[in-house]
Amino acid sequence: MESTLATRTAPSVSSDVNPYWWSAAFASQLVICVLGAVGSALSIFSVKLSKKMHEGMALQFNLFFFTFLIICVVILPTSLVDEYYTLNGWQEKHTGLYVALQTVFGSFERNVFGLIAVYRLMAMCFPIWFKLLSRPAVVLAVDLLLFLGVVALWLFVFLTETDQTDVGNPSTSDRGFAMYCFTLFMPIVVTISAYSTMLVIRARKRRAASAGEGHASLDSVSFAVGITILANILLDVPHILIHFRETKSTDLCFVVVHVFYRAHFALDPLCFVACNGAYREEIRARGLAWLREAAARVSAVAAAARGSSA
Questions:
Q1: Residue 226 lies in a domain
Q2: Whose CB among 10, 134, 214, 227 lies 3.0–4.6 Å from 167's, allowing a Cys bridge?
Q3: pLDDT digits (tens, 9 = 90+) for 175-210
């Protein structure tokens, strides 16, 4: 083996792009990290407050947003610093470890998102199977197996691919491209297919309800997930195309597309909270209560300080 995972590197490609573009991309993605971390924390808090959500689905959403939190707090910021140093020529090569962590966690969260869509479709079409497979222990085991599978597949690629010419874009190699299709593109197809099927079924139920055969409505969680999926489709398409073209990681178009793609780390959790009225109102009420309590404490401390000085 010519190199280890931590030292897999490739020569940087010289570029005539104005360095301000790299700085703008770096700053934009740092903002995305902050918004994503806040949104993920709010989403986890919202799921915890929910009293109607199925226990297994609540665990699924918690795992999904906890993955986002790790990405926004640890994985993405360190990768951004490494990318910024490489793009500005301050270091000659990408650090393979950061690329590997970003690729693995990015692929995992896409797979978890697809799994959530499959679970929601299962709840609608196969309630008995959903009841069996949505038990917390089963959900935890499925997500653990999914994570270990993604790690094993990408680890195989990073450790065996010796003709990698651009470590910053693993899809430029044959194995890397195949793995992108399997761990990134396929989950997106599964997500779109599952939710499209759900929309068709709901439309049929709505027509049946209008004919007096029952009642059908779109719950707030389904609406929030649907908006999130739509936003992800708009951001995923350019990202997939840029990898299908095997664009170099130091090209401006590659960087710009990834800025927009990584915006989903902030949009997904924020849309989940913003599009769910119950979660939004609960967070607002608790936030106002906390602010009033904090203001009362500050007033009490200030009054005590004035009293002691007098």
A1: yes
A2: 10
A3: 888 898 899 889 988 988 888 888 888 778 777 766
> How many domains are contained in the chain?
2
Report whether 254 contacts 247 (CB < 8 A).
Answer: yes
Phi, psi of 11 (to 5 degrees): -60, 140
User: In this structure, is residue 44 part of a structural domain?
Assistant: yes
Are 117 and 215 in the same domain? yes
Q: Supply the range of the domain harboring residue 143.
A: 18-275
Angle at 259 between CA 86 and CA 11, to 5 degrees: 20
Most confident of 64-78, 157-171, 182-196: 64-78
> Virtual CA dihedral for 220, 226, 229, 234, nearest 10 degrees?
-120
Q: How far is CA 138 from the centre of its chain?
A: 22
Looking at the domain assignment, is residue 285 inside a domain?
A: yes
Pair (47, 143) in one structural domain:
yes
Asked if 219 and 306 sit in the same domain, the reply is: no
* 295, 242: one domain: no
Domain with residue 24: its CATH number is 1.20.1070.10
Are 180 and 40 found together in one domain? yes
pLDDT value at residue 171: 80
Same domain, 103 and 234: yes
CB contact set of 156 (below 8 Å; sequence gap of 6+): 175
